[in-house]
Amino acid sequence: MLNIDLHCHSTVSDGLLTPAQLVEHAVARGVDVLALTDHDDVGGLDEARRAAREANITFIAGVEISVDWRGQTLHIVGLGIDPEHPELALGLSAIRDGRTVRARNIAAQLDKFGIHGSFEGACSHAGDGHLLGRMHFARFLVQQGYAKDAKSVFRKYLVKGKPGYAPHRWAPLSDAVSWIRNSGGRAVIAHPGRYKLSKGALDELMLEFRNLGGEAIEVVTSSHTPEQSLLFARHSQRLGLLASRGSDFHAPGESYFDLGRMPQLPDGCTPVWHDWKGTA
Fold first, then answer.
1. Whether the Cβ atoms of residue 197 and residue 89 lie closer than 8 Å to each other
2. Burial code of 89-110, b = ≥16 C-beta within 10 A, e = fewer?
3. pLDDT tens-digit profile, the chain (280 residues)
4. What secondary structure letter does DSSP report for 7?
5. Which among 162, 158, 142, 161 is positioned nearest to 150, based on CA atoms?
6. β-bridge pairing 33-36 and 58-69
7. CB under 8 Å to 95, separation ≥6 — which residues?
8. First CA to last CA across the chain, in angstroms?
9. pTM score
10. Contacts of 49 (CB under 8 A, 6+ apart)
11. Are 151 and 36 in contact (CB under 8 A)?
């Protein structure tokens, strides 16, 4: 059975490995099919594709788009996209501009709690591209001794009701799905078990997503418990959605699962890769 991982991040967004290093790490972990899905940016895909070709593993061009749905921040993964598609490129550029605004607001909120220099600190963790995300602030807070690790940061900071939270409006769900589909990709709801939605709201989200042309949900991912994976497997079967599998890997020691180390999809799911050449 192929080892398939369709959700991970490089230094182009908030990972700690370059795209080429990420592929090298995937190969060492026995991954056969890898998708790079950086947040709101496709700048690492060419490097990762070249490295995957040299390593003789299958590479899938991907992205993870930040979305606002009813005031909730969601993430939609695009798999098999054309990164040069004008509509997608323009949309992602607008989101990246918004990320800088949000980062300034996060820093201002942390200032109010006596945590100073966080914007510069986050930038130092973001590399040359400065695609700033909460993980960069989390690494700064760990470095400064405010939390023991990135997972602890998100229990005490940067989330609603905690220091450093800054609300932000991302792209509409309809836009993200449209950009992905029009670029030739397949839209996937990332880690649905992480969202603080009631059962009714979650059902409404999945129905709206499907009606917009979304095709899959992540069933197996690092933040899902085994029970959640079974729950979303049932949702995928009930709604006729495909099932995806991805570690959401950012760095060794920061992620719940290493690359390619997740359980297989539960029985009865139709994999998102079921019709990809060489993966069926």
1. no
2. eebbeebbebbeebbebbbebb
3. 899 999 999 999 999 999 999 999 999 999 999 999 999 999 999 999 999 999 999 999 999 999 999 999 999 999 999 999 999 999 999 999 888 899 999 999 999 999 999 999 999 988 766 688 899 999 999 999 999 998 899 999 999 899 999 988 899 999 999 999 999 999 999 999 999 999 999 999 999 999 999 999 999 999 999 999 999 999 999 999 999 999 999 998 877 789 989 999 999 999 999 999 878 6
4. -
5. 142
6. parallel
7. 40, 65, 66, 170, 171
8. 10
9. 0.89
10. 59, 61
11. no
**247 residue type, one letter:** S
Residue that is written with structure tokens 């959700």 in the block: 7
Write the CB contacts of 154 (distance below 8 Å, at least 6 apart in sequence): 134, 138
Q: Token pair 């990246």 is at which residue? A: 96
Residue 276 structure tokens: 């990809």
CA 141 to CA 167: how far, in whole Å? 19
Element (H, E) at 143: helix 134-143
